[in-house]
Amino acid sequence: MSAVETYEESRGREGCKECCERCVGSLPWASLIATVLLYMGVALFCGCGHEALSGTVAILQNYFEVVRAPGETLDVFTIIDILKYIIYGLAAGFFVLGVLLLVEGFFTTGAIRDLYGEFKISACGRCLTAFLMFLAYLFFLVWLGVTAFASLPVFMYFNVWSMCQNTSLTEGANLCLDLRQFGAVTISEERKLCTGSEKFVKMCESNELDLTFHLFVCTLAGAGAAVIAMVHFLMALAANWGYLKDASRLQKYEDIKSKEEQELHDIHSTRSKERLNAYT
Question: Which parts of the chain span the membrane according to its record (predicted)?
Answer without folding.
Answer: 85-107, 128-158, 213-243
